[in-house]
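anyone seen this seq b4? input:
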Amino acid sequence: MFNSKKRRPGRPAKYPPEFQCQGLGDDAEGLLLVSPTASPFDTTNPAVAEYQDNMRAIGAEEVDILEGESISAYASVLLFVEAARRLTTSQRRQSSTRPPTSRSRSRSV
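predicted toks r here
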């Protein structure tokens, strides 16, 4: 699955969680790894399998597919698309004509 020869210079290799803790031996007993997204290695998760298929379809390299940053960005785009899809026509029109709020205006320091 992982081909270290494809790794770009200066980029760390990514390994599944079970390999990340291998050197800890018994000290890893009970260790819990936490991530805000699903593991890009967990192809038993249908969403991860779909992610990998879609990334391969656009020609992404394996090292990029298996990075946590890639799956996080992919999930963010899907969330944005779904939010945009759910907007009504009037909401879209209103948001495109509304002046910027005080929060979005840049301030000089």
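The chain has five helices and no strands. The helical segments are 17-20, 46-57, 62-65, 68-86, 89-97. kinda curious what u guys think
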